[in-house]
Amino acid sequence: VVEEEEGLLVIDQHALHEKILYEEILAAREAGVRSQPLLVPQTVRLDPSEWEAFAEVRESLAELGLEADEFGDAVVIVRAVPAGFENRAVDRLLREVLGKVVEARRGGSDTLPDLRERLLQTMACKRAVKAGQPLSPEMVVDLIRGRARAFQPQNCPHGRPSELRIGWEELARRFDRK
Hints:
Low-confidence stretches: none
Largest sheet: 3 strands, antiparallel
Order of helices and strands: EEHEHEEHHHEH
Number of helices: 6
Helix content: 40-55%
Strand content: 15-25%
Shape: elongated
Number of strands: 6
Structural class: alpha+beta
């Protein structure tokens, strides 16, 4: 909750952080920074639906910084992860992203730009702080500063609101003060 001149600003920390990260990922892609090579490439065994999804979107994943190749029957070897995801479990990250691909395909969305957009949104979502997660005072300040730099911080990349403004008059009315 942030006190402003006009009233209070209630922030959904996950949605706002997701928006900030999404814009950072886009900026990094535009600057040519897409991936962090793994010191030790990791193999991941996939189920049939994940394997099918991987075969369809492997090149798109590489464009987003998740570089992986086939490494046997239903096994991939991950050689690099998107910048900023170095500390994530590689197998979980790959499965989460492929899960979104499978969901998108089931929902009838199969255009490549839409798929890339969904993957970018998923990457931001998975890196964002969680709703209700305790934040240090420094993290709160960083989040508010990030909000000031973000383009349209009022919504997360999925379109959900990230903040709610409550004016002083509304608060007074709600507490029967006016």
